[in-house]
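We treat protein structure as text, and this decision shapes the records that our systems exchange. This encoding replaces a full spatial description with a residue-level series of whole-number codes. Below, we set out a record of this kind in full and without editing:
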Amino acid sequence: MDIDTESTATSLDENTENFCDNPTRDTIAEGLMGLIKPTVDQLDERVRATRLSQVELRQCIEGLSEELKRISEDQKHSIDLEVYLKKLINAKQRVTVLSNILQSAQERLNRVHMSIDKETVKRKVLLNNTIEDPHSVVLSKNIGSSMSLQTPLYNLNDFPDVYEPSEDTHLFIDALEKDMKYIINSKPTLACEIGCGSGVLIAALAKILKSTCCYFCTDINPKACIATTRTAKMNKVPLECTRMDLTTNLKCKFDIVLFNPPYVLTEELEIFGCGLNRAFAGGLRGRSVTDRLLNNLNDILSDNGVCYLLLLKENNIGEIGEKMGEKGFKIKLVIQRKIPGEHLFVYKFSKA
């Protein structure tokens, strides 16, 4: 047994040695490795690229998930477009006001040209009559003697921050003309225009009442007070104009009050300041300033006094009528007019 065991071990050692020193095997192994290694390296690169792509894909999925979650949360809250719609409407109304101002200026220029042409023709006729008959006297007292109430003279070239008389101003003058008989018969002694601007309304009223009445004006815009004073001088109207908010510093009561308020629907912040925006910006309902006056109208008017007030259709005139009726006022429509973009009214308020 010992002999056999020893010989077997020797045989195994020899075989192992022969295997390790086999050059043919080594050559074949190197050849196989040379063939396989590029493929393995290529697979390794592709596996590495796949892992990187998976990381990027994971990041994209996480980002998309967050975006979808944000969109889902946003959809829970409805978008309020009413605010933007109101801003567009307010912008449209402001553009309409400016357009009316420009149109009014153009119409005024046209009237000036017509007046010049008429005056030229009239002077030619007078000159011809004088030449034909030197002893004749041409009387022109009837020229312009009709009861139509013309827009008073004014000049705002130095006052860009003062509201230019526009369609609303002319409608107000037409209201005074239409109610002229009532105004004269009421024999007022104290009159006041609130927010006088250019001063043409109080000057128009003075054309009706002449020197039988004392005239006062107020405006929050100091430039408007100066412009009104100039208008008064141009039309030879004696008046007192003071810078103030409505009639806060006046303790007397008036027989006639004129008020063409800022009536355009705007944001509430636009009603502050003292520039041109104060002339048209009326707040969300166009009544921020108007309501303040109406709430104190009982303390402003005399017992037989009247207030002429211009309103826009969007100012909710029905609601104003109900509130003032509850306060004991009579309300009467004097005149109304539709112009591009606006429907305007002039109402007369009096104590019942």
Q: What stands out?
A: The radius of gyration is 46 Å.
